[in-house]
Amino acid sequence: MKFENDVKCIVCSEISTIVVTAEQWYKWKSGTFIQDAFPHLSANERELLQSGICGKCFDKIYPEIEEED
């Protein structure tokens, strides 16, 4: 059975719908790494589930820092 979860970004309040199965949700909540529990989700969708921050806001808050040689 699949569940649609409406997840609201805690920064910009944008709502995203994420679809997962009950089995996947249980695995994640039981300690499975999020990327292993939800391999079909993008990194941004997994971040939203984990931290409550959407990809756009995450990129604004944590811009890539160029590494120096």
- Domain module count: 1
Shape: globular
Radius of gyration: 14 Å
Overall pLDDT confidence: 91
Structural class: alpha+beta
What's the main sheet like? 2 strands, antiparallel
Number of strands: 2
- Stretches with pLDDT under 50, minimum 5 residues: none
Distance between the termini: 50 Å
Strand order of the largest sheet: 1-2
- What proportion of the residues is helical, as a percent range? 40-55%
Q: In short, what is this structure?
A:
By secondary structure, the chain is of the alpha+beta class. The chain has helices at 22-29, 34-37, 43-51, 55-61, and strands at 2-8, 15-21.
Defining key terms:
single chain, 69 residues, alpha+beta, two-stranded antiparallel ribbon, 4 helices, 2 strands, 41% helix, 20% strand, globular
